[in-house]
Amino acid sequence: MKKLFAFLCCCVVLQTVFCQDAKPRIAIIPEPVKIVENEGIFKLPVNVVIEAPALPELKQTTAFLEQRLSAATGSKVTISSKASAAVKLVLNTTTNKEIGDEGYQLKVTAKNVEIRANKPAGLFYGAQTLVQLFPKEIESAGAVNGIQWIAPCVDITDYPRFGWRGLMFDVSRHFFTKKDVEDFIDLMARYKFNLLHWHLTDDEGWRIEIKSLPKLTEVGAWNVKKEGYFGDFTAPLPDEPRTYGGFYTQEDIKEVVQYAKERFVNIMPEVDVPGHSLAAIASYPELSCTPGADKYHVRSGENFMDWSHGAPPIALVDNTLCPANEKVYVFLDKVMTEVAALFPFEYIHVGGDECPKNYWEKSDDIKALMQKEGLKTMQEVQSYFEKRLEKIVESKGKKFMGWDEILEGGLAPNAAVMSWRGEKAGVEASLMKHDVVMTPTAYCYIDYMQSDPIMEPHIYATLRLNKAYSFEPVPNGADAKYIKGGQANLWTEQVYNVRHLQYMVWPRAFATSESLWSPKEKKNWNNFTGKVEEHFKRFDIQEIKYAPSMYDPIFKAGKDANGKLQISMSTEVEGLDIYYSFDNSFPDRFYPKYTVTLTPPKDAVMMKVITYRGKAPIGRMIAMPVAEMQKRADNKSNGEDGD
Ligand code: ACM
User: Fold this and answer.
1) Which of 98, 129, 100 is nearest to 113 (CA)?
2) CA of 353 to the centre of ligand 1 (A)
3) Is the CB of 272 under 6 A from ligand 1?
């Protein structure tokens, strides 16, 4: 009897282990170049030996695998150079040209796992993919019982489409600690991003210690804490304590650079000049065209710019360095000397965006400079500044990159351009044979709202996940040879803490990662959203926040032939049902299901809406005032420009 019981138990176990259905769903982000699924599964042994070359560059890769393959599973992991290991990391002795410097081949068989690459970065990315093949519980920091720790047998060949796969992190508008930045790097590397664009200076804070210019961080790193809608804050009182903010010491910077390097992430520092420089001017007022001690303060989110005439804005407070002032170039030389010594990456980003010209226009020094240099416009004045700055940056052994405004008035000879105000500047610069990184607002600005403005913290524009996913880094008409890649940008005016930072970045950065890594022809929205849901479950286990906005309905307000309000709804994700009420109560799946355009009942004031998948609620409960729909119908607006 005992034997029969044991036999039956074995059958059950074998059935689960070998049955095709027991295989976890393959949901790798970003989508690999080639996946061949084979019969069978690899079962993680209780004692896992990882064989890897003993290279310092691989320490983080093996440490990552060791942690991930043991913490949740209870397996014991040892790193060894012995053969017969369950997981082998192999550096090719003959280069495999197909996979390049960052690609890898991952072979999972019933017997073992092998990751091969030409370079350590490839092994790191192969390790990321391997972890994504195991059940989601592998992400747990603590032991999880009752899970079959299996991965499907596969052959994967994978390599990136672009060498520049970036995320920009603005730590000026709100300061984030060194640990926050390292956590950001950790997560971006897991989705095969390799470039952190670190926006270190702006009107609201100078965040990097410059030893030869101590006031930059003594004064420039601090403002007054305010909460609400950044941009509309009341101006701080003159004697209000300026204790909010912070900065990174040079030791901090070195540690973050090393942390990133171990995860194959380069860091490009940005020092944003000549506009966006109020923190520098508050520290050293003599750098402006309108000097005067005590006149300038680091901005705390009060209104200081008039955008009503378009770009460039009109500054209400002078936040610009003065191109006619020789002290500015001495200052920049000092800054670039120290920045260049801290960051091994080849580029320094010098900003150049949104530089107001109204104080320059009034300056006698600028007028004299224009006469002396034969400059006709304010754009040419900025171009003069950029060309001098390019020389300074190059004298430190670095390449010069700026936002696309640096094209105006004449591009500096070797400048690389970051195209953000659309794609036109990227096309233009590539045709001029300048390197380009694409980050057009319409696809890459992850500070924008992700859903209907009624649901999201207010920003002036919206970028839904499906739009982010449609990002094509090589714009029509560009010379593709000069498009280095792209990035998504997280500006943090409205991002006050790490939890909201995560909400803003994920899942849109999944979309960016797939646009930058995966072959164009392998992108597929429905497949992608299915994978996103699997990664949401992984994030739940790790307690990482993400935006569930893709489940919210999209509202459209219009009018019928008689001028009556008509409301229609759709969803970004396929297969969802929308239930609604007009009686102020909370709809569930027993309420009316949305099928055709609705006319609200005459006296209705509120429409409440929720999405379901089958019997399970999946979206957030949305309360949409009928008056808001009426307003949008009257204005022919979808509300998503945030107005
Ligand atoms: C930018 O968004 N001002 C580059």
Assistant:
1) 129
2) 6
3) no
Backbone φ and ψ of 199, nearest 5°: -85, 95
Of 124, 158, 192, the residue that ends a domain is: 158
Pocket test for ligand 1, best of 307, 420, 444, 490 (most atoms within 8 A of CB): 420
What is the pLDDT at residue 484?
A: 98
For residue 404, how far is the Cα from the chain centroid?
Answer: 19
Candidates 187, 105, 113; CA nearest to 149 is: 113
Mean pLDDT of 210-219: 98
What pLDDT does residue 292 have? 83
Last residue of a domain, one of 500, 515, 542: 542
Q: Which atom of ligand 1 is nearest to the CA of 441?
A: 2
Segment (H or E) for 618: none
pLDDT tier at 8, thresholds 50, 70, 90: very low
In a domain, 352, yes or no: yes
- Evaluate: CB of 448 within 6 angstroms of ligand 1: no
Nearest atom within ligand 1 for CA of residue 491 = 2
- Could you tell me the CATH number of the domain that includes residue 57? 3.30.379.10
Categorize the per-residue pLDDT at 622 as very low, low, confident or very high, splitting at 50, 70 and 90: very high
Angle of helix 120-133 relative to helix 59-70, nearest 10 degrees, comes to 10
**Cβ of 403 below 6 Å from ligand 1:** yes
pLDDT for 642: 47
SS3 at position 539: helix
**E strands, 285-443, where?**
305-306, 314-315, 347-351, 399-403, 416-419, 436-438
In short, whether 354's Cβ falls inside 6 Å of ligand 1 is: yes
CATH code of the domain containing 184: 3.20.20.80
Which listed residue (197, 276, 434, 535) is catalytic? 276
Mean pLDDT of 608-615: 98
21 membership: H or E segment, kind and range: none
Among protein residues, the one with the nearest Cα to ligand 1's atom 2 is 420
Percent of the chain with pLDDT over 70: 95
334 with 192, same domain: the answer is: yes
Separation between Cα atoms, residue 101 and residue 265, nearest integer Å: 14
What does pTM read for this prediction?
0.95
**Average pLDDT of span 71-91:** 89
Say if 207 falls within a structural domain.
yes
Query: Using an 8 Å Cβ cutoff, are 356 and 312 in contact?
Result: yes
276 assigned to active site = yes
Distance of alpha carbon 403 from alpha carbon 168, whole angstroms: 13
Q: Is the torsion defined by CA of 626, 631, 634, 636 positive or negative?
A: negative
Separation of CA 175 and ligand 1 centre (Å): 18
> Residue 549 burial by CB count (10 A; 0-12/13-18/19+): exposed, middle or buried?
buried
CA 249 to chain centre: 24
* Minimal-distance CA residue to ligand 1 atom 1: 353
Q: What are the tokens at 306? A: 């008039």
Check pocket membership of 353 for ligand 1, CB cut-off 6 A. yes
What is the C-alpha separation between 483 and 471, in angstroms, rounded? 14
Would the CB of 420 count as within 6 Å of ligand 1? yes
Residue 637: the pLDDT is 87
621 token code pair: 């409960």
